């Protein structure tokens, strides 16, 4: 997998809008806040979030709801052939995007099996029926299947408003920091154990992937957004500048306490019980547990990062299974601490 690192204002602006709308909503918010309690980027994003009106949040929820994530799903298609796209370029290309391309890339399909060419709205709606997203998000997708031109104008207008009202004072600092991190990521690009390659392997079947396009994002901080373009055999990954360093350093400080919290969350406990029976791929997990794709993605990310779950590839899918050795190691530490 060839590694290509880009710095794009369009990507960071999209991440910025997703972050300011959704921050504070994660089930693990207490743990995240403790990890980021002295983080300057997090403080700035919180301050900006406090300046959003109810109308701003309502409009952001249309395109940046974490279950449907319409804007992040559209982004790789909008940026095709323009990896260093600016905010103005993003708005212009959105407004000129063809209706079939809007339909085709209207939703992220990381956990689904079907392919959709964007031509027939009815076929698109049948695909939406199978998605593991809340009912209100399905109704939104049905609406835009019939009116893809509304996505073009409404999303471009929202991006323009947020850019000039909130992001522009933030932009130069974000660009400088992203450029510096890009240089770090470009070091040893052919290393098979490059942290970017390891992250992608945890979530994707990499056998057919020819290229990884990485976009450092100041606004994502410790997060990441992953989209695949199967027709390009490529993956597009926006990654927070502190995804690797902060997660590792904080995990070591209170390792046992943090690991036990990861294991005792009810949904992750149910997920582990499911995977204990046999390996599952993402869409199967969402269906079996009756939760959305974004919920599965969120909990898998935590379990993978703490090595409680391992991924393996078979039949062009990524399957997840319990890492019993790591769970035994943690339980052994618990026993030594309290029972010896």
Automatic annotation (TrEMBL):
Pfam families per the UniProt record, alphabetical: HTH_5
InterPro entries, per the entry: ArsR-like_HTH (IPR011991), HTH_ArsR_DNA-bd_dom (IPR001845), HTH_MetalResp_TranReg (IPR051081), WH-like_DNA-bd_sf (IPR036388), WH_DNA-bd_sf (IPR036390)
Keyword DNA-binding among record annotations: yes
Protein name: Metalloregulator ArsR/SmtB family transcription factor
Keywords assigned: DNA-binding, Transcription, Transcription regulation
Source species, domain of life: Bacteria
GO terms, molecular function: DNA binding; DNA-binding transcription factor activity
Annotated signal sequence range: none
Keyword DNA-binding on entry: yes
Domain HTH arsR-type stretches: 248-340
